[in-house]
Amino acid sequence: MISVCRTGIGDELRSTTYFTDEDVEQLYLRSDLERTADLTGFAELERAGFHADDLYRNSQLGEYRATVRMFEHGYLTRVIEGLGGVWITTDSMSMERVDELASSVKPVLAAYPEES
Questions:
Q1: Among 25, 61, 79, 90, whose Cα sits 20 to 30 Å from the Cα of 15?
Q2: CA gap 41, 59 in Å, rounded
């Protein structure tokens, strides 16, 4: 998972966190950042994504792929696949790169954690 994120994003990658309905695990945190984020609180919010696929089904927008949240210093991108999800934080970058990141993470997430 981390190698896919690093390959697509490079030095703009801030963190990668895997979560399920019951667990949360930070997989990567860039060395210049502090471990002060409330991972449990973030996971509570991001778990709402498990229901997004059902809520957006049959939308004229097409298949639900990812959620992007914009912050002052970058983005949080949430990708859900099956019973697991990942949120990835990055520095500011183009939406095209965020889209590429979400597309490349989804198939890896489908096999995670068996093939991390």
A1: 61
A2: 29
Give the integer Cα–Cα distance in Å for 24 and 78. 13
Nearest alpha-carbon partner for 109 in 85, 90, 87: 85
Which letter does DSSP use for residue 109 in this model?
A: H
Express each pLDDT in 68-97 by its tens digit: 999 999 999 999 998 899 999 999 999 999
Domains contained in the chain, CATH given: 2-111 (3.30.450.30)
Residue 35 one-letter amino acid: R
Model pTM score: 0.90
Query: What is the DSSP code string of 42-85?
Result: HHHHHGGGGGHHHHHTT-TT-S---EEEEETTEEEEEEEETTEE
Alpha-carbon 7 to chain mean position? 15
